[in-house]
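From the pipeline queue, job 12 of 40. The input is one protein chain; the requested action is below.

Action: predict structure.
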Amino acid sequence: MRRFSPASRLCGACSADPGDSGDCLVAEIGQDAVHIWAPNPDLRCTTTSVSAHTLYENRNPFVFREPSGTLDLRAATYDQRDERTVRVGGKTSFEPQKYSMRLEGAIQRGYRAVTFGGIRDPRLVQNSLEQMKVIRADIEERIRRIFGQTNSTMRIVLYGANGVMGGYEPIQTPAGHELGVLLDVIADTQERANEVLAVARAFLVHADFPGRLNLNAGNVAFPFSPSDVEVGMVFEFLKECVVIPENPLQLVRIEIGEVGG
C-alpha cells in the first residue's frame, strides 16, 4: 500500500469536515481501493465531504479528463470505514489518450479604478434594478460629454440585489434595507480610469430618482476616504487551447541548480 498526502484534486483538506484548504489529507492507495483520512484530529472525512469535492472545478463529477486520458468514476463507491476515514472503491475505468497539455494566455486589458459604498434610501433600494439602468445611462452620457469617446468600460454592481450572479440571478426583487454598490472602471490608462470613475461616482452620489428625499447628503455612503482606489493593471484570459506534444516534456523546461552557497 502506498501513502500520499495529496493537495491537488483534494485541495488540501477541503474534502474533510470541516473543510480546511490549509491542512492536508492522507490517501492510502491499495490494489482495489483508496482510503482517505485527515491526520489532524479536529478534521474528519465523510462520504459526503469526499464525494462532494468531485464537483469542484469539474464539468462532470463522474468523468475526469486528465493529461494522459479520461478517468470514469460513475461506478465508484464511497464507504465510511470509521469516524474519520472514507474508502473509495468500486469499478473505475481509464481510457488512455494521447498526452495533452492545456495552455492559457493572458493579455493586459487596461487599468482599473474602483469605489465601493452603501445605499440605504428605501425608495432607491426598492427599485434599485430599474433605477440603476436609468442612472447608468445618465452617467454614460455625462462621460461622453466630458471626455468624448473613451476607451473605457464601467460596471455598477449591486450586492444584495444581483451582484454575485448578475443576469443569471433568479431572484429579481432585492430583499433587505440596504445595498452595497461597486463602481468599477477600466480604461487604457490609470489617469483616465481615475477621471472616469470620479465623474461616475459624483453623479451616482447625487443622481435624482422618483421619490428622492435627500438633496445634498447623497445616495451613497462610503466606508473609507478617499473613496476611489487605484487597482492598477488589469489582465484577462485571451486564449485557451489544448496541445498534443510529441512527448510530455516537449513544452516543459527543467533547470537544476545548486541550493545554498
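Job complete. The helical segments are 47-52, 122-126, 128-147, 190-206.
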